Amino acid sequence: MSVLRALVGLVVVLLAVVLQASLFPHFAWHGVVPDLALLVVVGAALVRGAQYGAVLGFVAGLAVDLSPPSDHIAGRWALALVIVGYVAGRVRQDAHRDRPGPTQVVLTVAACSFVGTSVFALSGLLLKDPLIDVDEMLTTILVALVWDVLLAPFVLPLVMMLFARLRPSRVAF
Amino acid sequence: MRRDPHHQRDGQRAARSTLVLLLLVCATLITLDYRGGNDSPLEPVRKLVGEALGPAESATASVVRPFSAIPDWFHSRTSLRSDLNRLKAENARLRQQLETTDLDRNRLAEYDDLARAASDTGYVLVPAHVIAIGPSQSFSRTVTIDAGTRAGVTADLTVLNNDGLVGRVLRATTTTATVLLIVDAESVVGGRVGRTMEVGFLRGSGAVGPEGNLDLDLVDESVTPEEGDAVVTWGSEGGAPYVPGVPVGSVTSVISSPRDTSQRAVIDPYVDFGSLDLVGVVVPAGTDSDRTLISAGDDR
């Protein structure tokens, strides 16, 4: 059963990665697309907590790093999304509720989008992969944030419902 | 549901150790890939993931393609008329350009024939569609095309479309290939100004969006390129990764500082990287391919 659950989680993440690369470029603004993988990780972490969020973040990040057409140093998106998954999961624990409210969800998405893209950009600055000026970086981070917040009302409820279903029923929390 | 405080603390501790563990794994991966360079241990994994996800991207793109044309149906008559005027003006400009570049064209044709006679190979194109585009959030400009090793595409081949140079193939799986666009910050192409035959290096600015420009660092400082001069590829040895004579873009401005020994020109690429779709991969004649190849001489 737990293998099946893990498999469903993996399929959802891979689907998000594929859609992000093949469907969303048609809606891109200056090449910036909504980060669907990040939204899935945030949604799952909000329902399932920090540990699950971090693991799913790692899987999703690795999928983004290794799937075509990405060519950056592998592990950079994994790093960013592990942090995103953990942070989003902590929000849920701090909320002391099973279901965080809509405002809280949107704020979490905004914060996580900012943190995720920034961590990725900063790792690029450190590794000089590639050399991009800071203005460009900030614009991209902000546009990505707006995109993610705009898409959150459509994606997050679905993702949260799905991952709540996937939760093993015998666990107390 | 009420929470047991002990249980929660245990959960938090577990989450924290998972976080640390995963961060260490990420750091290891980054180090491995960074140190490894082109033969990094992650390259086979990349290929494997590409084999698995490539067909999925291909399928998604073919579902989406018919719908992506819908916005074009709603062009009003006025916008069509303005399009017509714009195209007329562009046509006139291009005709003028053609007349003034005849001489260079003849010279280039001679060189081309010479090169062709010497190596006795014509180039042929493998047609391919762009099926996935890397997001700007990744700060690199790469796309996936739906032609792989089965279609005769391998690493380090030139990719172009009917406007000009698009980029080069980085790696190929059986059904897909990843292309580095020339506007990527890590892309360097040997370029030649058509009018003066001056050579230089074209570097991508890596800029996001439509202002994807190229910088041309000219080797010779005595000759100044003019605005509107066409730049073509200079060509690499053996035609890989770039074949010679592919149009790249036109000069929009020239920056020369007395401190530097070379001068820099900003190039506006002919290719619109925002709406890439059909591209061609230049392969040597006689390549085994599962699709019909386009010969370069057909349209002349």
Structure, described:
The complex is a heterodimer of chains A (173) and B (300). Chain A contains 6 helices and no strands. Chain A is mainly α. In chain A, helix 2 packs across helix 6 (134-165). By secondary structure, chain B is α+β, with helices and mostly antiparallel strands. Chain B has helices spanning 5-36, 43-68, 70-73, 77-100, 102-119, and strands at residues 123-133, 142-145, 158-160, 165-172, 177-181, 188-193, 198-204, 214-218, 230-233, 247-255, 264-269, 278-284, 294-295. A 6-stranded antiparallel beta barrel of chain B has the order 1-2-5-4-3-12. Chain B has a 6-stranded antiparallel β-barrel with strand order 6-7-8-11-10-9. Chain B is globular, with a radius of gyration of 24 Å. Chains A and B meet through helix 1, helix 3, helix 4, helix 5 and helix 6 of A and helix 1, helix 2, strand 1, strand 2 and strand 5 of B.
Task: Spell out the key features of this protein.
heterodimer, A: 173 residues, mainly alpha, globular, B: 300 residues, alpha+beta, six-stranded antiparallel beta barrel, 5 helices, 13 strands, 26% strand
Low-confidence stretches of chain A are none
The most extensive contact between chains is: A-B, 70 and 67 residues
Name the average pLDDT of chain B: 78
Kindly, what is the distance between the CA atoms of the first and last residues of chain A, rounded to a whole number of angstroms? 19 Å
Please give the count of helices of chain A. 6
Distance between the termini of chain B: 76 Å
Widest sheet, order of strands of chain B: 1-2-5-4-3-12
Order of helices and strands of chain A: HHHHHH
Query: How big is the Rg of chain B?
Result: 24 Å
Question: Based on CA inertia axes, which overall geometry of chain A fits?
Answer: globular
Query: Structural class, judged by helices and strands of chain A?
Result: mainly alpha
Element order of chain B: H for helix, E for strand: HHHHHEEEEEEEEEEEEE
The number of helical segments of chain B is: 5
Query: What is the averaged pLDDT score of chain A?
Result: 86
Q: pLDDT under 50 segments of chain B (min length 5)?
A: 114-121
Chain oligomer state: heterodimer
Q: How much β-strand is present in the residues of chain B?
A: 25-35%
Number of E-type strands of chain A: 0
Query: How much helical structure, as a percent, in the residues of chain A?
Result: over 70%
